[in-house]
Amino acid sequence: MKLLEKGYLGTCQIRNRSVMTAMTTGYAGLDGAPTEQLTRYYEERAKGGVGLIVTEIFRVNNVHGVAFPRQMYALNPMNVQPLAQMTARVHQHGARIFAQIHHGGSTNVPEMNNGRIVAPSAVPNVSGIMPDPLTLEEIEELKQQFIGTAAACKAADFDGVEIHGAHGYLLCEFLSPAFNKREDQYGGSLENRCRLINEIVQGIKAVCGKDFPVGVRFSCDEHDPFHEDSLKLPDGIEIAKCLEAGGADFLDVSNGNYFCPHSENEEPYSYAQGCREAETKAIKDAVSIPVIGVSNIKSPAVAEKLLEDGACDFVGVGRQHIADPEWIKKTAAGRTDDIAHCIGCLYCFESLMTVGYVRCSVNPKAGREGIFHEPPAKDGNGRKVAVVGGGVAGMEAAAVLGQRGFDVTLYEKDSKLGGEVNLACATAPYKDKVGWLVTTLANAMEKGNVKVCLNTEATPDLVKENAPEAVFLAVGGKPIIPPLPGTEKAVLAADVIRGTKKITGKTVIIGGGLTGLETAEVLFRNDPSMDITVVDMLPKIGMTMYPAIYDDVMKQMDGKALTLCPGHMLKAITDTGVTVTNTTDGTDAFIPADNVILAMGTRANKDAISAFEAAFDRVVLIGQTAKNPGRIATSMFDGYVTARGYEPGI
Ligand SMILES: Cc1cc2nc3c(=O)[nH]c(=O)nc-3n(C[C@H](O)[C@H](O)[C@H](O)COP(=O)(O)O)c2cc1C
Ligand code: SF4
Question: Has 169 been annotated as catalytic?
């Protein structure tokens, strides 16, 4: 396999063609030094077989260069030793590690940067804030900071560096005529716009030597609908040639800036694997230095095809390395069925942006490698346990319990495993990626010899027949139906998605979260002429959704008769429509409708809990059974931790 062949970036030999692209984790310390959590996270990926890890972003100064609170920083001499410990831990497993060096430019926030943000020119950022154009003196200072950071990384035994010139950050702004309006030697012509990056590359080479690889990540197309003069692929090709001529050892081809639709450099569900092949190939064909190509890669077969097609020399793989740090090792061992695939849900980004660190839906251990470094104890000794519910929480718990040596029986009322994940899969053909998780968990359960009873509504009496010492209750939540006039006339979103309730005519959906919008998507797919209104009490529809996922769903409904009605609460349902109350001024409005669909989420399933708690001494609640709302990530984590921590026989 080409994927497993060694290759070179500059003079640095890489053991295979897989590159874990830079991904900010939020695991670094506030001082910019690596923590044990971060080191362990990278170490696990090195152990899992990746050829090269490109770290998350290093800032180059604390004055106007801070992009993220827990961001790496090498220019503090105190950080060099911990960085060296991190690189040593990666090296001992045979992987290489490069540092990504970054300045956010106008995308930085003034609050973290002494009230001032800088850019090549005074062009408003995506929030409308005007940055200060950098003076020539400041540019010179910045250049030295990039070079100094690379030198500090070399001192910490990094194998090379990647200069971040993509995604709308400072050096991308220098490359792009839309953001670079300078009239000096750093603006105007292609050579001038590439000059700063080229000078940084040459400066690093001068200090660190020719054998210290220096590459550039850049957006070959900004996909920016707001700036006509933003970078398009033909510009990207010319930039690639100019960066090669400037001395870069490799190029890492990416896409987008802060104005492009969110999904252009964080591809969600609807993007196909390999979707960037044409762009990376165009760059590769234009240069002779190695090209790393990122392309929404989740499986070795797609990675292999990109390499065989000559679309890149190394595959750039981000999220798949979060989802399964061992995917390369498993590929090499012919165990591709064991790979846990990234499902494209973007919970990693969402958690980074909301709680400040990366969490993964399919890998509960991501970022917790140090806590869960040992496999679960093998102390089940054939003791019987029951798992009620074959959604992801139940499946994960059953798999872990089975692998611990318990004798596990799982009951699922449906004819197939997966629970609510099957519902998600049913909303759109491109949601098949979510279903990969069910396959992964079913394989893991098989390894744990879990007995599966499908089409079986588990009552306490039925489960008792098998005399388990504990019941893990993972039956999920119950749909919320508010006690309001006329709600008995409404249909549940799940029934519409499953196709058990056929809907035609003018329709109102109550609930503007992911399920509500996906229900609209399903209805439009069945009948593009439908007229649908989505109502939510929050001030914005999709407010609880990660923006790229929201964009992804909404773009499926472009041009359809979809009305969004945020800031309104359901008051009553009648035979002819819905009365809603404006949450700001308290006024009522009537929306005529033939059908009303409830997509208001779920709440704890108290009936199931009390029935099982009355019948068994040990009932362990997992997933959405007792908590709302449920997410795949929280359900998986709950299933994993609960099953791992379960103490037998007490
Ligand atoms: C949580 C997260 C953080 C990221 N942080 C960075 C970063 O610091 N620097 C960077 O160049 N790209 C960053 N990216 C983009 C990835 O490197 C990669 O280009 C993107 O995820 C698409 O590749 P994939 O489909 O293989 O995940 C990040 C992506 C994710 C998911
Ligand atoms: S959170 Fe979702 S998108 Fe991110 S790595 Fe995990 S599965 Fe992939």
Answer: yes
According to the model, what pLDDT value does residue 1 have? Answer: 96
Q: What is the pLDDT of residue 429?
A: 85
Which domain, by its residues, includes 634? 384-479+604-645
Tell me, yes or no, whether 368 lies in a domain. Answer: no
Closest Cα to atom 2 of ligand 2: 345
Residues 461 and 582 occupy one common structural domain:
no
**399 and 348 in one domain?**
no
SS3 169: coil
Low-confidence ranges of the chain (pLDDT < 70): 628-629, 650
User: Encoding tokens for residue 384?
Assistant: 């019987």
Ligand 2 centroid–CA 480 distance in Å is 28
Q: How far apart are CA 410 and CA 416, in angstroms?
A: 12
Select which of 169, 258, 357, 640 is catalytic: 169
Is the CB of residue 202 less than 8 Å from the CB of residue 247? yes
Residue 364 lies in a domain: no
How far does residue 23's CA lie from ligand 1's centre (Å)? 5
What's the structural domain count of the chain?
A: 3
pTM over 0.85: yes
User: Does residue 521 lie within any of the structural domains?
Assistant: yes
Whether residues 67 and 178 fall in one domain: yes
Residues 556 and 620 in one domain: no
The residue whose CB lies within 8 Å of the most ligand 2 atoms, and thus the one to mutate among 263, 273, 317, 343, is 343
Tokens of 547: 């923006």
The strand ranges marked E within 82-213 are 96-102, 118-119, 132-133, 160-165
Q: Among all ligands shown, which has an atom nearest to the Cα of 303?
A: 1
Give pLDDT tens digits for 6-20.
999 999 999 999 999
User: Quick check: is 376 in a domain?
Assistant: no
Chain centroid to CA 318: how far?
9
Residues 61, 75 contacting (CB under 8 angstroms):
yes
Is any ligand 1 atom within 6 A of the Cβ of residue 59? no
For tokens 């987008």, name the residue. 256
Q: Which ligand is nearest to the CA of 342?
A: 2
8 Å CB contact between 73 and 79: yes
Do both 31 and 150 map to the same domain?
yes
Residues 65 and 211 grouped into a single domain: yes
Ligand nearest to the CA of 72: 1
Contacts of 441-444 spanning 24+ positions with Cβ under 8 A? 441/392, 441/395, 441/396, 441/399, 441/417, 442/395, 442/417, 443/337, 443/338, 444/395, 444/396, 444/399, 444/403
| Per-residue pLDDT, 629 | 65
Q: Are 309 and 277 contacting, i.e. CB atoms less than 8 angstroms apart?
A: yes
- 235 and 118 fall within a common domain: yes
CATH no. for residue 240? 3.20.20.70
582 and 608 housed in the same domain = no
CB-neighbour burial class of residue 537 (10 A; exposed 0-12, middle 13-18, buried 19+): middle
Distance from the alpha carbon of residue 265 to the mean position of ligand 1, in angstroms: 8
* CB of 318 closer than 6 angstroms to any ligand 1 atom: yes
Centre of ligand 1 to C-alpha 62, Å, is 23
